[in-house]
Design brief:
1052 residues; alpha/beta; 37 helices; 5 domains; 39 strands; globular
Amino acid sequence: MLVIHGLWLSGVGLAVWGEDSTRPARAPRRPGRAPRERPHPFAVDHATLAAALSDPPGEPASVLLTLPTRAGSPMDSPELVRTTAGEPVRGPVTLAGWRVPALAYAPDAALALLRALEVGDVVPGATLRHLAELADFAADLVSRGRLLPGVADVVAVPPADSATRTRTGRGAVEDARPRRHLRPVDHSDVVTARAVWRPLLTGTDAAWARSLALALPPAARAAVEWEYTRPGAAAGAVGPGELVAEALDALTDAAARAALTDTLLHRGMRPVGPVPRWLAALTGPERAFHAEPAALDTLRTELDAWQRDAAGGRVRAAFRLVEPPVDPVAELVEGGSWRLEFGLHPTDEPGLVVDAAQIWRGSAPALVDHRIEPQETLLAELGRASRLWPDLDDALRTAAPEGMELDADGAHRFLREGAPVLHAAGFGVLLPSWWRRPSSRLGARLRARSRSAPATVAAAAAGLGLDALVDYRWEVALGDQPLTAEELAALAELKSPLVRLRGRWVELDPDRLAAGLRLLRSAGELTVADLLRMGLAGADRPDALPVLEVTADGPLGELLAGEAERRLTPADPPPGFAGTLRPYQRRGLAWLAFLQSLGLGGILADDMGLGKTVQLLALLAGDPPEVGPTLLVCPMSLVGNWQREAARFTPGLRVHVHHGAERARGEAFAAAVHAADLVLTTYSVAARDAYDLAGIDWHRVVVDEAQAIKNAATRQAEAVRSLPARHRVAVTGTPVENRLADLWSIMQFANPGLLGPAATFRKKFAEPIERHGDAEVAGRLRRITGPFVLRRLKTDASIISDLPEKLEMEVLCNLTAEQAALYRAVVDDMMAKIESSDGMERRGLVLATMTRLKQVCNHPAQLLHDGSALPGRSGKLERLEEIVDEVLAAGEKALLFTQYAEFGGMLRGHLSARTGREVLYLHGGVGKAERDGMVTRFQSSDGPPLFVLSLKAGGTGLTLTAANHVVHVDRWWNPAVEDQATDRAFRIGQRRRVQVRKFVCAGTVEEKVAAMIADKRSLAQRVVGSGEQWVTELSTDTLRELFALDAGAVVE
């Protein structure tokens, strides 16, 4: 397994390095004092990196990183999973220098790499994913024109024979062979500068940039020094905000240049003068240009003023559009007198607007804290706004402008043109609430009818298909009120773009009115595929009417209504299925068969533990022999599970496993496939054997753990999408993990073309939803994808009434006097070190403090590593003993989770000796055969009642429903990880109420962090990689409060 990480190096650009799980985890021990730096033992070499990333090629580099280190070896990143684990590593966590091979990319190449992330079978780390998000943001800013040209600092021309250079994280530049510095610019008549494009961050864009800085993974700042073969500007970023700003600036400049199709100057012409040279450098491949110092200063001054005017300050102008007074009972009101009111609002309080009239009266107490002159600020802000929206000029001819009167045309022009421009520039814009409602605009309804609608779903099994023809007609409506052709024609005669019709203000667009009339006159036939694209995706032209509703008769109508799963008659398991399906599983089977009858694919996204495997096997069991084989692609770890489940539930299915070095090829493979009903293979084999697999006429292709194809550009995703099949099913716990691009990739497999090309989907859906939180677009996307996604949650009692309710509780434990003394000693010692440190050293010390304090809360012996006795020294252990006694007395079983392998071993020995019962213990060093044996023994009725598990080793992939008690002895502080661990017991097959206890020591850092996590749990569940890293960014005073031991924490 390869994990690829990304760094943004000042003056260089992107650098990527990687970890290889097959390399030794431990660095070779050397006698004597530890050196300043050592080679990283499991870093990926240059050749492997280049092969994994393919295109564009990177430039070999070497980077010195400061990484968390234990027992003389760097710790694995959270994304790295080792197939074989050694002995648990003990010892404190420190920070040490490790040198890694890397590939460096200039900003232009970095943008291409980050936006494609063609990393094949490797896993992108959190730092690389964060940089990819920055690259997408930069491209989005450029696409919306949110950038301005500028001039970077004066740069020097490097020596022609520049050698390998060494950089430090603070921007120092040295030559690595002869030690010499870049030559300073000392010309008296000309200097060299760089033309750049810079992002213009205002409003929601500025907020998003701040959130990206806050979300910067700590590992993104691990670089201390780097060597590379290409000289660059010497500029070092230190803090998260500075680093993100530098990366965003460079990526925005790269995106702007990539978007330019032609230069502003004719090719072959030699630009004369500073401004033409600057323009040429802005639009050409060479960023540097020459100018006289005085001319350059003038140009820079003007550009800086432009940037300041565009960005604005902490208080911005606000504009409120007020409707004209009308008779509420009037059936139709045309035009009217509108008013645009002026005011000011603080950018950090967008809900607060101070009217201009109040400002001119000298009464603006809400702005006192902002230390501005309100009247001067208002005039300056209105002047800036008028440069973007010249319609404001007339109102600014008065000495004290408060607003301006508008007719209907002017109000409509402001709504359509002025308001978006001003809002994008960061000004406050308040519009009537009806403007963004679909009911304020004309819309279309598409009615379809099958030419020979079958009476039942069974009759539809002959296949409606995407190519089948249906009859259709259009209706035009205003919200929920249909309009006749005569009414549309009458509205078209009105000259006002805004009218009040039937008690609501509506926009009358002549083009859309004409489009509505054309739709009413159109009727005929179209294919099911065209119906789905027209009705669900809507029209792409700006003058087309939005589609408000699509209805049809028969099975197609059920699908479009998104009610197919609930309205379909639950399907009985076919004769070849040797099992019993729960009611919701029978509905899922009917849904899958229903989509198949329509020739459509689907995404089965039921919650973990709801039995997606048995629903798929029941569908396969109902296939007639003549339809052909089903290909199922899954991770290697699940091949055996599918084999066992198929043998258990569908013993009549002929299963062929296509995997391994001796797997069949060519004609032998074709013969094996035609003799099978179900062919199992892995994603890696599907990519390697794409030619053989594509030569088979598959009845169905299923992808399990479909998140494996969420990156659309990977080789395995492309291979799976290219497989021919009449029916496609994607199986996943959730169709969207990190980005909507993941949903597009999975849906592109299930129903190719439904969501359009990737670039169009990103522009129409992903960017408005992810960047700007557009609820209307999100609703449209749900309407498009909803009919093809089936997701049920096991916490929904209406779905699975026979799964017992899970009862979670936090158990507060007190410290013993010994624990309290150790706790205070650790706090005093570590806080003294933290106060005198900074940067990566400080972050490492904070994480080390967290670890030591959690060890103290578990047991003094875990911190001291002295092998001393356990009884009577830990409040947690005493509480655990009481719970274990209750569990055993009731004849039940329990899972005990800890994140520390050493403490797990201590618990096993202590509890086994105390209870006289065998206690199982699963940790990272346990092999597969031994692990499977433990699971089997625990699941048996007479097996051991207690199972201690390391959270990393036992948190996923196991079914341990024999337990109905789960105890988290210590906390991972990642809700998703803890929930996955709990789900070892809380899943299908569990027939009792599951009680989940999470231990927390009162008055300690554990209780305080638990409270913070609980307050923000809904957000924490959405954050990938949440844990303790955020604590490292807290101030020293906040850390002291967090770590302090509160009164009442100790029990004597």
